[in-house]
Amino acid sequence: MRTFGVEEEFLIVDPDNGSPVPLAGDVLRLHDAGPEGEAPSFRPTMAVELQQEQLEVITSPHSSLGALAAEIRAGRLYADSLAWKVGARIAALGTSPLPVTPHATATDRYDALLEKFALTAREQLTCGYHVHVSVDSDEEGIAVLDRIRSWLPTLTALSSNSPFWNGADSGYASFRTQAWNRWSSAGPTEVFGSARAYQSLVAELSGTGVVMSPDFDARLSARHPTVEIRVSDVCLDSRDAVLIAALVRALVDTAARDWKEGQRPDMVSAAVLRQAAWRASRFGLDGELLDPKTRKPLAASHVLGALYAHVRDSLEETGDAPYAKEGLQRILGQGTGAARQRQAHERAGTLAGVVAYATGVTHLVPADHQPAGKAYLASEAGTVALVAG
């Protein structure tokens, strides 16, 4: 069974007014120093991002969806427990509902980004969700990338969780996608055909003096033997994060099988895929998506059904099919993170109320969250323990 892991980016927010606060350095110093007294049984990997108002939490690779779900939840709780100690919270929001002037993290890499990309980098406070899935070789990885391209906009729609930008409703379900696509190499790619062609393009982009590392929608990881799928907003509800991970692994499995059986990839152009991504970003699941087969608008529920049918065999082989089917039905019923943020705004009447709602949902452990035999415990001291059931 292929292993998979995720990277979740979170906003660090003021619990009183909902504004992002530049406290990533303080949170990470607490993490690096370790806990006082007895060490917890669980400490995730954490990292800085471009802006000090955000924090990244990284899981270990897992073969079981249940184990990954447990670590996603525990990682959120752990990061929030550290944020509490510096007077903040973490919130799974793709963009800040409230206006913010971000504070850049001082590293050589980020300094170079700010110098080169100017306002694009200075304004870039967005939180994404990246899924890594193991592959046997670069050739298999490229075969996978070539065969999952048409389905990536559906993941954008499903995970959409960034309707607000700079204090206003953007009109988009995933405005993070719009902001992210200002990077010069962001977005969909053409079919590569081989690992050599992929590496040649990466080298050519590097040679332009513009691109430091390609920001493709999906790419080979430079550090791990994985493909990295990067189109999703950070998910408001951790159940949605688990669902996206399950679907991504199933897409990778299905694509690798198709490649081994000699099936050619869909040769749809990157230009058309960009239109599919725009539609997904604009409407989420509240409008029509482009059908990956016909490239014509189709009801979002039908496109989700087509995605499930496409990966059903892989989901059944891993035992993830019931969780995936239930998750898709749940999101169609209750709405994406973007829809739920807008509902919270209607109830609260303020953007600060949206952040307060999102902060609560970020750490909520619904009774139906766990796909398989894991449990969470939190001690009185707030230390999160991951406990095998």
Automatic annotation (TrEMBL):
Give the family per the record: Belongs to the glutamate--cysteine ligase type 2 family. YbdK subfamily.
Q: Which PANTHER family match?
A: GLUTAMATE--CYSTEINE LIGASE 2-RELATED
Q: Cell inner membrane among the record's keywords? A: no
- Name the catalysed reactions: L-cysteine + L-glutamate + ATP = gamma-L-glutamyl-L-cysteine + ADP + phosphate + H(+)
InterPro entries in the cross-refs: GCL_type2/YbdK_subfam, GCS2, Gln_synth/guanido_kin_cat_dom, YbdK
What name goes with this protein? Putative glutamate--cysteine ligase 2
**Annotated Gene Ontology MF terms?**
glutamate-cysteine ligase activity
What the protein does comes down to:
ATP-dependent carboxylate-amine ligase which exhibits weak glutamate--cysteine ligase activity.
Q: What class of enzyme is it?
A: ligase
| Keywords from the UniProt entry | ATP-binding, Ligase, Nucleotide-binding
Keyword Transit peptide assigned to the entry: answer is no
**What EC number(s) has UniProt assigned to this enzyme?**
6.3.2.2
